[in-house]
Amino acid sequence: MRIRIVDAFSERPFAGNPAGVVLLDSGTFPDDVWLQQVATEVNLSETAFAHPLPEGGDADWALRWLTPAAEVNMCGHATLATAHVLHSTGTATGTVRFSTRSGVLTTTADDRGSITMDFPTAPLTPVEVPRVVAEALGTDILSAHDTGPSVGDLLVELADERSVRSLSPDFRALAGHGGRGVIATARAENPDGGYDFASRGFFPSVGIEEDPVTGSAHTALAPFWSARLGRTALVGFQGGARTGLVRTELRGDRTLLTGTAVTVIDGELLATG
Asked: Architecture of domain 125-252 in CATH?
């Protein structure tokens, strides 16, 4: 069984967000315990598992995402990585439909190597800043929004990009806030820098202290910044030590996320359950 490591939201190796990708030959998923063991062994923020579905249905592949500690409802970068593997190996062309916990998600590849994902837009609800989050981040927070059950994160706006980049959270405290994670964001400091907003994502409650480039978070970042900047098409920069760019386009209750990916490891998974 082949397993690949793909750097998503990057045009070069060793940047963006790495994901494990396992394409299964059978028409069903293996035992959940085995899936979690593989994801724990890979030890990246997410490992994606996909198997083909019968022709004529609503989707072409079934897709699941697991962190080293838990299964998640939505993951953008591992979806991008999976679509990249399908296209780069000739397994699929054009549009691929994935059946997931978040419904059917569609990806479309162009002839330049970019892949656009069609995800549900996260609903944003203003909330009071939880004290545990404010203390764990250790910085002033301008506003906070709940992103709904599909994403499950708290989106917090900071004063400036410098504040986002300099964050050094207390991860143990942050893990107790009750949601999947916390997304910290601010407007881009340099309007000519090639992106419109910056963010970082912290998810210690699911075993990930910091996720370099979180596709699903941009389903909340896109409507948040589109409302403030007055444009539906934006570019987001995310990351601390590793970084990447996500192109977003808000289309009402759907958000398009576009990026590129690079396969850096292609190997054999010997423990097949």
From this structure: Roll (3.10)
